[in-house]
Amino acid sequence: MPVAVGPYGQTQPSCFDRVKMGFMMGFAVGMAAGAMFGTFSCLRIGMRGRELMGGVGKTMMQSGGTFGTFMAIGMGIRC
């Protein structure tokens, strides 16, 4: 299949590049959501200091990884 060329000579990103970009966008959105929900839930159960930072960081990474994975799958389906 020939590579599509835009009006100024640039090529379209490959399917792998689109999947990577989908993962990165999803990871960023998931991290933001994890920061909000993680902070609220950790404060609600009484965490403070180092324990709070660890709990919020763990929630951010989990949310980012989950949402990033689903966004990457969605971008892969669109290729």
TrEMBL record:
<dbReference type="GO" id="GO:0005744">
    <property type="term" value="C:TIM23 mitochondrial import inner membrane translocase complex"/>
</dbReference>
<dbReference type="Pfam" id="PF10247">
    <property type="entry name" value="Romo1"/>
</dbReference>
<comment type="function">
    <text>Induces production of reactive oxygen species (ROS) which are necessary for cell proliferation. May play a role in inducing oxidative DNA damage and replicative senescence. May play a role in the coordination of mitochondrial morphology and cell proliferation.</text>
</comment>
<keyword id="KW-0472">Membrane</keyword>
<dbReference type="InterPro" id="IPR018450">
    <property type="entry name" value="Romo1/Mgr2"/>
</dbReference>
<dbReference type="GO" id="GO:0045039">
    <property type="term" value="P:protein insertion into mitochondrial inner membrane"/>
</dbReference>
<keyword id="KW-1133">Transmembrane helix</keyword>
<keyword id="KW-0812">Transmembrane</keyword>
<comment type="similarity">
    <text>Belongs to the MGR2 family.</text>
</comment>
<protein>
    <recommendedName>
        <fullName>Reactive oxygen species modulator 1</fullName>
    </recommendedName>
</protein>
<dbReference type="GO" id="GO:0030150">
    <property type="term" value="P:protein import into mitochondrial matrix"/>
</dbReference>
<comment type="function">
    <text>Has antibacterial activity against a variety of bacteria including S.aureus, P.aeruginosa and M.tuberculosis. Acts by inducing bacterial membrane breakage.</text>
</comment>
